Amino acid sequence: MSPISAMSPMPSPSDLERLIDRLPAEQRARFRWAPERFRQILDRLLVGEVTPEIIHQATAEFVQVCVALARDLLAAQPELPEGVSEAMPDLEQSMDSKLMTYFQGLPAAEGIEWTLGVLRNSRASYHSSVRPEETKAFAGSIEESKIEENVQNPSMGLLRAQVIFFALLQAAERGIPPARLEDLAETAYLEAAQRVDLMAAQGIDLDPLSSLTPEQRFEKVRQSIDSLREVLTPDAVDVISRARVTSPLF
Amino acid sequence: MGLYLLDTNAFTVLYDPRVAERAPRFHTVVSERLSLDKELAIPTFVLYEARRGLEELKLRSEGARKIAGFDRLLRRATILGLDANNGWFIAANLWARNKLRGTNIREGDLLVATTALLHKRKLVTADQPLIAALRSLELDEFLDAHPME
Asked: Which of A109, A156, A183, B25 is the 20 to 30 A CA-CA neighbour of A247?
């Protein structure tokens, strides 16, 4: 999988329905199964404990469906990459406000906000550096047999975060209590953080904190301290304390 | 530019309620210094120590909320290091001066103190051996020393 795939936009189930609606009537029936398949995959992230293996598997299946669809959809509608912004409002516009409203008042809202900022920066970087014809060529070049292995790569953290966010969007639409999903939301944050660090090492800054004023950044520090005291248990603090360097006197 | 730099114990008092309860005055001082500077500044060495703990929490699968919360605090901090302006040379000089005077100072403390010196900030600390070592090296002007109470 090439580096651009880690930033390639993917549709949510609702966005996919909108994309399908743009197709000529005779082609729509061919893709009607896909949104429901997406929802089934995302459902697996909303029940029980979510392990890295479950996230990898769900992401792989999501990407496999996306790749198959991208080939068919691009063949049916060659101008699609140019119109991607208007065709996917969940991804480009409404996901932010829906998720922020859903997690309002919970510590995980800080992670959601930051991760959404990373996704925005990543998409901006993608749109400014990847031409539509490259997206088309890329969709045709992916080896489906390698998807499962590739989505486990640390550099695919943002892809996994995006799939988790689609699952959270689905949970919001279904009215599932958000407090049950805070760990999942924070897992998306950690996935995105991994990607931000990897990109920073290559000189690409995706961190939304970089665009804040010193006052805004300090406000974030204050929020962090307050919410950290809520979630950090004494045992966790002890692990951190014991990790200090205890070098001898010299 | 900020005036202060937090030593490990000053950083810890921010997120460990037990330390804040045991040393309420020190907790108040640290909070006031943060408000004055409008930033949380820590040395690279303190970041290194904190990230060791964070990485262990990850390997222990301690729960995404704890790990993400601590990661966010570290990400939002201003990190000051020794790589610019001959920082490591200054640390080496301080080590040699310390050795000739026969002062006892821990390696980590030496690097934290040098970071304060290099960036012309006062090191907020309640670490008494570190305070004694810096005073013996006549580096009081870079100290914001307090009792742990």
From this structure: B25
Chain B: give the shortest CA distance to residue A107, in Å.
8
Query: Residue B12: how many CB atoms within 10 A of its CB?
Result: 23
Q: Is B110 helix (H, G, I), strand (E, B) or coil?
A: helix
* DSSP run (H or E) holding A159: helix A157-174
- The number of beta carbons lying within 10 Å of the beta carbon of residue A195 is 24
Whole-number average pLDDT of chain A = 84
Chain B residue nearest residue A249, CA to CA: B106
Which of B21, B62, B76 should one mutate to test binding to chain A, selecting the residue with the greatest count of A CBs within 10 A? B76
B62:A108 CB<8 A: no
Report residue A207 as tokens. Answer: 């961190």
Q: Judge whether residue A7 has pLDDT over 60.
A: no
Q: What share of chain A is helix, strand, coil (3-state, %, to 5)?
A: 80, 0, 20
Complex ipTM, two decimals? 0.91
pLDDT for position A250: 45
Say what the pLDDT of residue A80 is: 61
* Facing A228 at nearest CB: one of B18, B53, B69: B69
E strand or H helix at A108: helix A108-129
Tell me the whole-structure pTM to 2 decimals: 0.88
